[in-house]
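#help-structures
NK: newbie question, is this the right format to request a structure? protein is L-threonine 3-dehydrogenase
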Amino acid sequence: MKIRAAVLVAPGRYEVQTFDRPKLEDGALLMRVELSGICGTDKHTYQGETKQYAGTESETDTPFPIIQGHENVGVIEELSPAIEESGDFYQAPVKVGDRIVMCPDMICGKCYYCTHIQGYSWCSKSQCYGNSFTSAQWPHLLGGWAEYMYFKPGTFFYKVPENISPKVAVLAELMACAASLDKLKDFSSYSIEGFTSGDTVVVFGVGPLGLLHVAKLGIMGAGKVICIDKSDYRLDLAKKFGADLTINVDKTSQSERLKLIHSLTGGIGADVVLHMTNRPEPVIEGIEMLRRGGTLLEMGNFADTGEVSISMHRHVLSKNVRLIGLSNHPINAYGPSLKLFDKYAKQYPFADLVTHEFGLDQADEAMQMSMSPQSGKVVINPWL
């Protein structure tokens, strides 16, 4: 059996290649891919921005050739005896034909971070499907832009409830990333720190990650939610997901935006800013929008996209700001995320986030569309 995959052989260049069906190791499984999302990380890799976790023990450069795709949903095609015995992450029994999603991060389970940080994949030896494994080495099929995908032993995967469609389930990894809001709750207190109910929140960047944060802000009791982006298309989507006000940066100046945020908050400033863009420059504007003691969450610059200058006095010390960086999501956030998709299906049009589907032969076209301001979540459907 030959399996087709879209392979990124070098930055900016895809080829459709075929691979033999791999024989399963014990503890492995083979998934028939239904949909695989294009993430901001995939865009960075396509453009040659391949360094991740820079300055840490986990620092890596994405290898080529590679099969991308770490936001995946599919059905079990084949599973080994160990999987039949252990079930999914929550020990739910699984069988051939069951729909599943996966956490793309593989961790060692033994390093300092694995033993001290509950849930978060900060492993010193972390490897990520679609980012860390070259397709030049067996078992080759370690990304979702393929007809079938191989799960190595130790991969975390999760059975999808029957009433959740592939178009919604493919968003599970992104919704797991929105556990960042639960993390901000960890810092909350009535000395006005962290994220508390009724807070004014500014979201910079409403691509799919930002949009799911907007939805979860509503679920968690945020007050006014203000979304900032360059795309009217995405800002319109943000309104569907609960944004109270949207601002297009191409139609306003920085001083106008800062003045507006302060006027909406009685001259105080936003309680929380979520930075979800893939450029570093808006971080400074976000800090300036915060009130004293406000919190800024940085999740947008997953790859090294450059530097900005911060005044430690003006931007950090004087304002008593909390700067929170989160580069990953908890492995135990998938179950809660799927439950939220189910419970709030009538309130939020989650499936509408998937705006475009492309086949393997259209990988380059799909990537270009994902960079367009006229798109939401762009996915690869290997069977188109």
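mod (FA): yep, format's fine, and the tokens are attached above. Residues 2-176+329-380 form a domain with the Quinone Oxidoreductase; Chain A, domain 1 fold (CATH 3.90.180.10).
NK: thank you!
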